[in-house]
Amino acid sequence: MKACDRGGWPAARYARFWRGVFLLIFFAPWIFIAQSQAEDASRRVLVLHSYNYTFPATAMVSDAVRKRFLERSAERIEIDAEYLDLARRPDEAHASRMANFLREKYDGVHFDLLFVIGVSAIPFILKYRDVVGPAVPVVFSDVTRSTYEALQLPPDITGVINNSYPGKTLELAERLQPQARRLVVISGTDTVDLRWREIARTAIESQNAGPEVLYWSNLTYAELLRDVSQLPRDSIVMILTFFADREGKRFIPRDVAAAVAKASAAPVYGIFDTYIGAGIVGGYTDTFESLGITAADMALDILSGTEVTKVPPKSNPKPAFRTDARAMKKWGLKESDLPLGSIVLFKEPTLWSEHRYLVLSTILIVGLQASFVVALLFQRRRRHQAEISLKESEERMSFTAASVNVGLWQFDGSTNEMWTTEHCRAMFGLVGDLPLTRDAFLEVVHPNDRDVALAAIRQIRNPGEPAVTRVRVISEGRVRWISIRTRVRPDDHGAPNRFSGIFVDVTEQKAVEAEAELQRQEVTHLMRVSVLGELSGAIAHEVNQPLTAILSNAQAALYLLADDPPNVAEVGDALQDIVQDVNRAGEVIYRLRSLLKKGQAELESVSMNALIDQTVALLRSEMIDRRIVVNMDLAAALPHLLGDAIQLQQVLLNLLVNAMDAMASTEGTRMITVSSRATQGCIEVFVRDRGPGIEVAQAGRLFEPFFTTKNHGLGLGLTICSSIIEAHGGKIVVANDSTGGVVATILLPTQEVLAEA
To answer: How far apart are CA 303 and CA 44, in angstroms?
Structure first.
C-alpha cells in the first residue's frame, strides 16, 4: 500500500500542494506591484455634456471621442461622463447643484483632462472648475468663433472652433431655388438661439441681395408649425437652433427641425449635420463626428505630455455642402444644381452598385443565350429562304389574286425578256400568248410618253431606290393612265440588269384631279368676280371719269367749230384730250375684262412693278372713297417673272382689299405701303397696312379654307392666293408687322430661275 499523510492524501499530492502555496506567497507582492504600475500608467478623463443623452450631437461627439481614444492611445484611458442637462435647466440653481454633485461624486478622484461637449458647458466649467477639476486642462469640442472670442478663455483651455456657415447654407438654397422670393430664418428664444440668430443675420445681410428676409424667433412651438405650413412654395426656410420657445418650453433642436421640415410648405435648410436625415434638404455643415475626432486628437496630445498652451484652438477641417437625396426628390430639386463637391446622403443605391457581380453574370448568361438564339435564327432564315425559292411561283399567283387593279412585272436586261401577270397583260391590251419584250411593251405606250418610260428605267442607279413614273397607254382605242413603280436588282457583279415593279391603273385618279383643277379655276374666277363686284362702285367711277372728260372735250370742240373762223388749234387739243381719255377708259375696261375672263393659266413674262401699278390704279377710286393713302416703294430694274398675270393680279387685288378692310376702323392716317425688291433669284413684294393686326389665336389659321375674320367674308381669299403663289413656285406669308399693322409678303422666283429649273 502507498504511504498516506494526514487526511488521507498521498505524499506526492501533499508535496505539490505546499509547493503551490509557497509560489503564491512568493509572487503575490510582484502581482500587486504590477497592478499598481498599470493603474499609474492609465489616464482619467471626465467628459461633461452640456445637454442630456437625448441630444444627437452629444452622442455623436462622445462616440467619436471614445473611438479615437481607443484607436490612438497606447495607454488605457478611463472615461467618466456626466450630463449637465443645461438645455432644459439653464438656471443657476441647477448649475450649482450639478457642481456640488460632481464634487461629492468624484471626491478624491484626480482627472488628467476635462473634456467639454457643447458650448453651454464652457461657462459652467469656467465658474466651477475649482470644484470639478482644479488646474486640470480643458478641451472643448464645439464653439463658434464669435463665442470663443467673447468668452476670452484662459490659455489652459483649448479646443475646436466650429466656424458658422449660414451664408454658405443660403448659397446652397439659392442655387437649388433660384426663383425664391422669401427667406425665413427660424430660431428660438434661448441665449444660444439668439446668439445664432445674430450670427446668421450678419452673414445673410453681407451677401443677400435677392429674397426678402424674415426672422422668426419669438414664436411658440405651435405657432411656428402653423406659420411654416402656410408659407408659399417659392420660400426658403433656414432653421438655426431652437432650445426654447416664447413660452419657455424647452426642446431638442433636431426634433424641432424634423417637425418644421414635415410641416413646412417650402424646402427647409439647416446649419447642423444632425438635422440632415430629419427631413431638411441640407446645408453647409461640419460633422459632429469630425469635431469629436479633432478634439480627441488635441486631448491625446495633452495627455501624452504636451503643454495645453502649446495646443492652440483648431478649426474643423471638413465642412462641406451636404444634402438629403430623399428631401431633394420630395421638393423636385435637381442634383445637377448642387455646388461642385457636394455630398449627397441617403441616396438610394443603384442595382449596379448593390449587385454588380450578379448583373455581370446575368449579362454574360443572357449574351450566351442570345448568341445561341442568333445562330438558330440564322439557320432558320437560311431554311426560310430555301422555302421561298421553292414556293416563289405559288406566291406570285396568290399575290396577283389578292391585288386589285395592280399588275406585277419583271424585266431581265441581259435577255430583253419581260414577265408580267395576266392582269398586267389585260391592262395593256396584250394577247396572252404574245412573247413579251421591252419593245412589245413600248409599242402600246403613247408615242409622246415612250421616252419618259425608258428614262424611268435608265435613271435608276442605286439598288433599293424606287422610281415612279406616269405614262399614257393606248388600250382598245382608249387612253389610260398607268403609274409605273420600278426597282432595280443588281447582278452578281453589282450591275443593274434586272428590274421589277408594279403597274397601277390611275385613270380614274387623273380624271378626279382634272375635275378638281377645273373646280379650283372656277372658284378662283368666282373670287375675282366677287372682289370686282364689291368694287363695282369704285370701278364705275373710274370709268365715268374719262367718259365725263370725253363729253366735256367734245362739247368744247363743237363750240370752237361754231366760231367764224373756227379755232383749229384748240379744236385739235380738245380732240387730243378725247383720244387720251378714250385710251384711259379702254385700259380700265381691258383690265376688267382680263380679270373677268375665264380660262386656263397662261404663262408669260410679267413685270411685277407694272402689275402693281395697274392694280393700284384699278383701286384708286375705292381708296379715295375710303380716305386711304398709298405709298409706293418699288425697286428699279426689277427682273421679270414667268407666270399668269391675271392670277398674280388677283393675289395683289385680294391683299390690297384685305388691307383696306383691316383699316376700316382706324383713326387718323390710313396708309397702305406697297414695296418690292429683288433678292438672289427671287422677287419680294410687301403689302403693309396700319390696321389693328392679327390676333394670336387667329395667326395659324389664316390660310385655312372658309376661315375669315370679316363679317361678310367667305374665307377663301387667302387660301386661293396661297394656291396661286405656290403654283408659281413661291410662297406667301401674312404676319403682324413690328411697327404695327399687318404685312403680307410674296416671294416669287424670277424668270431666269424658273427657266433653269
So the answer is: 9
What would the pLDDT profile of 359-389 be if each residue is shown by its tens digit?
888 888 888 888 888 888 888 888 888 777 7
Backbone phi and psi for residue 520, each to the nearest 5 degrees, phi listed first: -65, -40
Q: What is the pTM of this model?
A: 0.44
Question: Angle, to 10 degrees, between the axis of helix 356-390 and the axis of helix 392-402?
Answer: 90
For 269-306, write each residue's pLDDT tens digit: 998 888 998 999 999 988 888 888 888 999 999 888 88
Q: Is 645 helix (H, G, I), strand (E, B) or coil?
A: helix
> Can you tell me which residue has the cell 411685277?
608
CA-atom Rg of the chain in angstroms: 52
d(CA 674, CA 695): 23
Looking at residue 377, its pLDDT comes to 87
Cα 404 to chain centroid distance, Å, stands at 49
Cα-based distances in Å from 568 to 175, 549, 556, 563, 579: 97, 20, 12, 10, 16
Please, which residues have CB within 8 angstroms of residue 49's CB and are 6 or more apart in sequence? Answer: 55, 58, 62, 81, 82, 83, 84, 117, 118, 121
- At CA 395, angle to CA 389 and CA 398, rounded to 5? 170
Cβ–Cβ < 8 Å for 269, 238: yes
Which letter does DSSP use for residue 202 in this model? H
The closest alpha carbon to 479, from 506, 501, 456, belongs to 506
429 φ/ψ sector (left φ>0, alpha ψ -120 to 50, else beta):
left
Q: What is the mean pLDDT of residues 151-178?
A: 88
Q: How far apart are CA 298 and CA 296, in angstroms?
A: 5
Q: Which residues pair with 480 in a beta bridge?
A: 473
Q: Which contacts qualify for 392-401: CB closer than 8 Å, 24 or more apart?
A: 396/421
Q: Is the peptide bond before 134 cis (omega within 30 degrees of 0)?
A: no
